[in-house]
Amino acid sequence: MARIRLQEVTKIFFGGVRAVHNMTLDVADHECVVLCGPTGCGKTTTLRLIAGVESATSGHIRFDEQIV
User: Fold this and answer.
1) Which of 16, 18, 24, 46 has the most CB atoms lying inside 10 A of its own CB?
2) What is the DSSP letter of 38?
3) Which secondary structure element, helix H or strand E, spans residue 44, and what is its range?
4) pTM (2 decimals)?
5) Using the 8-state DSSP alphabet, how is residue 61 labeled?
6) DSSP code of 41?
7) Which of 17, 16, 34 lies closest to 25, judged by CA?
8) Cβ contact 5:25 at 8 Å
9) How many C-beta atoms lie closer than 10 Å to residue 68's C-beta?
């Protein structure tokens, strides 16, 4: 596993829809984290950004210290 770190990540889709805004998150190696919230708050988009399916509009996503 690896440390996952989101630094001021924003994702804006075409048409100006802001799915994730200025998110900072630090998940330690072997740590379990749950994302909770109402429909449309950016949970799935955040996971897609971490998985590399989507690219961030701004900010950085790091695995350990490597920017992905």
Assistant:
1) 46
2) -
3) helix 43-51
4) 0.91
5) E
6) S
7) 34
8) yes
9) 15
The rounded distance, in Å, linking the Cα atoms of 61 and 66 is: 8
Give the H/E segment covering residue 49.
helix 43-51
Instruction: With CA atoms as reference, report the closest residue to 20 among 3, 8, 36.
Output: 8
Q: What is the pLDDT along the chain (68 residues), one digit of tens a residue?
A: 799 999 999 999 999 999 999 999 999 999 999 999 999 999 999 999 999 999 999 999 999 989 98
> CA Rg, the chain, in Å?
12
CA distance 36 to 32: 13
Which pLDDT score, from 0 to 100, does residue 1 have?
77
Secondary element (H or E) of residue 26: strand 18-27
